[in-house]
Specification:
Helix content is about 15%, strand content about 40%. With about 450 residues, it is an alpha+beta fold.
Length: about 450
Amino acid sequence: MATASTCRTFLLAVVVLTAQLCGCTAYVGVDGFSIEFIHRDSVKSPYHDQALTAHDRVLAAVRRSTARAVALARSYVGSEGAVSEVVSRPFEYLMAVNVGTPPTRMLAIADTGSDLVWFECAPRIAAARAAPLSAVFNPSSSSTFGRVGCNSGACHALYGTSCDASSNCQYLRSYGDGSKTSGLLSTETFTFESIPGGCPGCRGHPYVLVPNVSFGCSTSTNGTFVVDAMVGLGAGNSSLIGQLGAHTSLGRRFSYCLVPYTVKNASSALNFGDRAAVTEPGAATTALVRSDFEAYYTVELESVRIGNASFEHLSRVIVDSGTPLTFLDKALVDPMVQELTRRIGTDFPKVPSPQEPLQLCYDVGGPARQYSFSKSVPDVTLYLAVFGEAATLKAENTFVEAQEGIVCLAVAPVTEKHPRSILGNLAQQNMHVGYNLDKGTVTFAPADCASSYNSLPVNG
């Protein structure tokens, strides 16, 4: 077992072209890479439930939205240093990471609302599991595994850490629903399988290898965890993004392009480094502002415009890939509902909401009428503070089909129960959303995400 050094050298992300794929083994420096971003309801996800209809999945996403919104509002740094953050059950996207040498494939929650990377490790103590383990990483089987000392910078940078009897850095992470995971902070080599476009002339995909990534090697879990791994993509220094920026040439940059729920058998893309650059026409950039919780990506919303009607109300909004619905202050949602009602007109009958907090629901009938309805829905333009740029939401971003032929507004008001404003992933569908922590910005641009997955540029 390798020993982790407390003084970490500058690392360069490298592409490993395996002998099986390319007929040779070579190490080539890269400026960026892209991997598959798997929605929990995708047929590629182990959590895909064939018994559910498309509408069942939408209503389940609505329920996860409210649970997630409550958990985001409860996040805080506890009195003993442990962090209470997102609830452990609701999640939307997964990513695969190959951990160690030889690699163990782990399927992890990819969470923009978390700053910790952790995997279930052997030996383990598991209690009150809500689901069977899908994978466990065995440190003793890896030649590149190392422990992090409790006096190291990596240990001090993470909340909720302490020293064990051997001066290793141990951590405890608590979640909003009472679930907990604990273990030892460790280092390992992570290998990511890049999607097409990163290996010219090769018959397969290249592998991007990043050594000495700090992660929590979890040996004890208690609560309602349904997965055995999490990759925090949040703004904190301990997240994967923070580590890539501090110790590789990739910088603290990543992006994603979310394929709409209605598109079947298509994958979204998660991009790092140069590939995270948002260059599509119509891009709108705004500054990230200070958040109550370091991991969250927060922007300032200045106003909302629908046609010539403008509703001004300055508010801070969390941009979150893990919450399906969008939650905005009531001062914005109420006039939005009134204006949308007026512009959509009376051609489509209103119907009761199939589930709270959905509102403004219409019976749109079959596919032809659904198309007419989408054409009748006006654009909703979000005016972002600081740089004065605007992001436009189309009908697919603002309305969702909750039951067959029934569509509802996918924007709900902030309440006492979930008091934080959130720009959810339905609002981000068919948008290339890029985060640049080095510049302190986030950029939104309209994109055909299903097509862009298969046409990524070789050089970013």
